[in-house]
Amino acid sequence: MIDVIIENVRLIDPAAGLDQHGALLVRDGRIADLGGGLGRPEGAQVIDGDGAILCPGLVDMRAEVGEPGGEYRETIASAAVAAAAGGITTLAALPDTKPAIDDPALVRHLRARGEETGSLTILPYGAATKGCRGEELAELGLLREAGAVAFTDGARAIGSARMMRLILAYAKGFGARVVQHPEDPSLAEGGAATSGELATRLGLPAIHPAAEALMVARDLRLLRMTGGSLHFAHVSTGEAIDLIRMAKAQGLDVTCDTAPPYFDLNETAIGNFRTYAKLSPPLRCEADRLAVLAAVVDGTIDAIASDHQPRDADDKRLPFAQAAPGGAGLATLLAVTLAQVHGGALDVSRALGLLTCGPAGLLGAKGGTLARGSSADLCLFDLDAAWQIQSGALPGRAQNTPFDGRAVEGQVIGTWKAGRRVFG
Amino acid sequence: MPLTHRHLLQIEGLHPPEIDTMLDLAESYALLNRSGKTQRDLLRGRTLINLFFEDSTRTRTSFELAGKRLGADVINMSVSTSSVNKGETLLDTAATLNAMNCDLLVVRHGDSGAPALLARKVDAAVINAGDGMHEHPTQALLDALTIRRRRGRLEGLTVAICGDVLHSRVARSNIFLLSAMGSRVRVIGPPTLMPTEIERLGVEVFHDMREGLRDCDIVMMLRLQKERMTRGLIPSFREFFRFYGLDAEKLACAKPDALVMHPGPMNRGVEIASDVADDPVRSLIKEQVEMGVAVRMAVLDILARRSSRND
User: Fold this and answer.
1) A4-53+376-395+406-423 and A57-363 share one fold
2) Residue numbers in A near B87 (CB within 8 A)
3) Percentage with pLDDT > 90 across chain B
4) Cα(first)–Cα(last) distance of chain A, in Å?
5) What is the nearest CA distance from B172 to chain A, expressed in angstroms?
6) What integer is the mean pLDDT of A321-329?
7) Looking at the domain that runs over A4-53+376-395+406-423, which CATH code has it been given?
C-alpha cells in the first residue's frame, strides 16, 4: 500500500483540540503524521484538499441497518454506501432486528458483515432482553465478550421498572452502558404525533411529550439505586433534557444523544399528513426543538446520532397513523448538523466532536480521532458547498428522509476507511 | 366566491365566502328537493363512486341520493375494514378507480388523512365523507345550513358541541366552520374525551354541562363512539349519561328557544334522551338529514364543474 498524503486541508481533530491548516500522511492504513509543514514522502500519492476540512471519519452511535430480517428496507451493503457518502466510517447497529441480536453468534456476524463492506466498522449493540421483548435478561456477559458495545432494546422502551432495574444492575457488572428509548409505552401506545394543537387539528392519535420525561425520571431514579451507566437515545423534549442536566450536575453516570430532526425540524413538518416526517419519538413543538438545540450547545447532549431508520415506500405510503415511523439519516447527518454551524449556534470543532470523539467515547470505540497511529478513518468535506436533500436521490437504499427538499451547506468530498478511499 | 379547491378534504382553510357559496347553492337545492323537481341532466354521464372503508348507511345513502338526483351514475364500493392491510387496499383501489374513469370519489376511512392520501393518487375529485378523527366536512356544511335556515344566520350564535370531542371528526369540522363564520363555539365533555390544546382552535372548554349550556342558541350532540370506550376513557355509559347526556333538565340551562342537533346515528339514553331527540319543536335532527342531501348535491355540483373532465 503506497503512502497517501492529503495536503492543503484544515485539520480538525476535536479529541485533541486541533484546528490548523496542514496535511495528513497515511501509511499502511494508519495515520502516520499530520500538521503544518509536512514533507511529501517519496512515491506518495498526493491529494490536494483545496482548503476543505479533514476530520476523523464520523462515528454514528445509533442506526438500523436492516440486517437481519429487514433486508427489503436496507442491507449492510446499502447502509455502507450511504454511510460513506455521509462521511461515516463507524456505526453502532441497533439490536431489535429479526431475529434480535441476543446471541453472541449474531454479534460476531454483524461485526464480520461490517468488515466485508471494507468501508464501515459495525459496532453491534446487544439486546438488553431476550428478543428485545422486555421480559427476560439477555446474556449480557456473553454478548459483551462477543463484542457488543452496549445494551438496549432499540426502538422499544424497556417498560417495566423491575426489568430496567435488573438490566442496569447486571450490566454494571460488565462495565457496560445501557441505552434506553425514553418513552413510557403505556402513554405512547398507538400514538402518531406529539400531542398539542397540530395533532388535534389533524385528528391524529397523540403522544404527550411527558411520556419522555416520565421515563427519564424513572430511569434516573433506578440508576441512583443500582449504579452503572445509562444513556438516553434521541432525546427530544426540554423537560427530559432538564432532568438529565440536573442528574449530570449531581454526578450520575448518565449521557444522552439526539438526532438532527430533533434540532432541525418541529412538528409542523408533518403538516398535510407527511409520513416521511413521522418519527419515533415524534417531532415536537418549536420550544422543544430550541431546548434540544440549547442542550447540544451547552454540552448536556453528548453526541449526535443519525438515528437512521430505513423504511421503504410501502411502509410510508399509508394513512399517517398506519405508516411506519422512522427517517433515513446516514447521508444527511453531517450536513444537517452543520446547519447549526452556519447558523452560529456551534463552532465547527464542537459540532464535529459530537459526531466523532463524543460518540466514540460513549461506545468505548477506537475511532473518532486523528491521533498518530490510529486507523486512517477520515472525512474530507467542504463546509460551504450547497446541495439539496432529495428523497429519491440519496445514496443507499433508504429514501425516507424527513428533510426532503431542504437546502443544506456542507458536502462530503472524500471518505477513507483504514487509509482506503471509499467515497469521492 | 367559487371554491378554489379541486377536492373537498377538510373545512380547515376554507374562506367564509367559499362556505357561503356552498351553503347558498345547497339552500337552492333544498328548495328544489321540496318542490319535487329534479336536475337529472346536471351530472349525466358522470360517475360517482362511494368508497367506504367504514360502515355508514346514512352518509353513503345521502351521497347516493344526491348523486342520483343530479343524474350521476352512482356506484357503491364497500371495502371490508377487517382486511389485514388497509393501506395496501387503499392504494390498490386508487389505481383501480383511475382505470374506471371515476369523476367524483366519496371516501370514508377510519384513518385521519386517508382521503388526502387518495387525492394525491387519483384523477377524480375527492370528497371526504369522514376520515378518522380528522374531519367530516359535509356534515359541518349540513349542520350550518340547518342552523342558518332556522336562525337566519351563523354569526353571533353560541353553539355548544357536546360529548366525545376527542374522537369526533364532526366536532373538528364544525369548530372550523362555525368559528370561520363568526359563531361562538363551546365544547363540553369530560376531560378524558377532550383533545389537548383544543382551546387553541378558538373554542371555550367546559366540563360542567349545565354551565357550558348557559345562554347557548344551539346544542350539538356528538355520537359517543361506543367501540372506543373499551380504552376506558369513561367508566360507564350510565355515568356518562348522568353528567353529559342531554335530557330536558340540562337543556333547560340553554336559551329557552335553543335548538338540538345530532349527526346520527344516536345512542339514545347514552348521549341524548329520547324525549329531547324527538321533540318536534326543539330537535333539528330530521331536518339535518334532509339538508344532508341538499348539501351533498351542492358539493357534487361545484366539484364536478371544477373537475378537469368537464373541460
Assistant:
1) no
2) 317-319, 322-323
3) 82
4) 19
5) 7
6) 97
7) 2.30.40.10
User: Which chain A residues are Cβ-neighbours of B132 within 8 angstroms?
Assistant: 203-204, 319, 321
* B151 included as an active-site residue: no
User: Using the beta-carbon criterion (under 8 Å), do A197 and B169 form an inter-chain contact?
Assistant: no
> Residue B293: pLDDT above 60?
yes
Domain at A57-363, CATH homologous superfamily? Metal-dependent hydrolases (3.20.20.140)
pLDDT tens digits, A165-222? 999 999 999 999 999 999 999 999 999 999 999 999 999 999 999 999 999 999 999 9
- The pLDDT mean for chain A works out to 97
pLDDT of residue B158: 98
B78 neighbors B52 (Cβ within 8 angstroms): yes
Q: Given the residues B69, B109, B136, B169, select the one marked as catalytic.
A: B136
Task: Return the pLDDT at B310.
Answer: 43
CB contact under 8 A, B200 and A200: yes
> What residue in B sits closest to A190 (Cα-Cα)?
B231
Which pLDDT does position B230 carry in this prediction? 57
Number of cross-chain residue pairs from A and B with Cβ atoms under 8 Å apart: 74
| Selected residues 267-296 of chain A with any CB under 8 Å from a CB in chain B | 272-273
Q: Pick the residue of A273, A275, A285, A316 with the most B CBs within 10 A to test the interface with B by mutation.
A: A273
**Residues of chain B contacting residue A205, judged by C-beta atoms under 8 Å apart:** 133
Instruction: Note the pLDDT of residue B88.
Output: 60
pLDDT greater than 70 at residue B229: no
Contact between B56 and B107 (Cβ < 8 Å)? no
Å from B94 to nearest chain A CA? 12
Strand-strand pairing, A18-27 and A30-35:
antiparallel
Q: Can you tell me the distance from the alpha carbon of A313 to that of A72, in angstroms, rounded to the nearest whole number?
A: 11
SS (H, E, C) B36-76: CCCCCCCCCCCEEEEEECCCCHHHHHHHHHHHHHCCCEEEE
pLDDT digits (tens, 9 = 90+) for B80-89: 655 545 556 7
Answer yes or no: do B112 and A202 touch at CB < 8 A: yes
Q: How confident is the model at residue B309 (pLDDT cuts 50, 70, 90)?
A: very low
- Map out the domains of chain A as residue ranges: 4-53+376-395+406-423, 57-363
Please confirm, yes or no, whether B136 is among the known catalytic residues: yes
Name residues whose C-beta falls within 8 Å of residue B146's C-beta, 6 or more positions apart in sequence.
Answer: B261, B284, B287, B288, B291
Q: Is B59 designated active site? A: yes
For range A24-31, the mean pLDDT: 98
B158 noted as active-site residue: no
Per residue in B207-218, pLDDT (tens digit) is 999 999 999 999
For the segment B95-107, what is each residue's pLDDT rounded down to a tens digit?
888 888 899 999 9
Catalytic residue among B46, B47, B59, B158: B59
The alpha-carbon gap from A252 to the nearest alpha carbon of chain B, in Å, equals 34
Q: Which of A186, A195, A201, A268 to mutate to test the interface with B (most CBs of B within 10 A)?
A: A201
- State residue A56 phi and psi, 5-degree precision: -60, 150
pLDDT at residue number B311: 41
- Residues facing residue A328 across a β-bridge: none
- Structure confidence at residue A142 as a pLDDT band (50, 70, 90): very high
Neighbour-count burial of A138, counting CB atoms closer than 10 A to its CB (0-12 exposed, 13-18 middle, 19+ buried): buried
- Report the pLDDT value the prediction gives residue B55, as an integer from 0 to 100: 83
**CB B112 to CB A208 under 8 A?**
no
For A300-318, letters b (16+ CB in 10 Å) and e give: bbbbbbbbbbbbbeebbbb
Beta-carbon neighbour count of residue A46 at 10 Å?
13
CB A23 within 8 A of CB A412: no
ipTM of the complex: 0.92
Say if residue A237's pLDDT is above 90.
Answer: yes
Report the residue of chain B nearest A314, measured CA to CA: B88
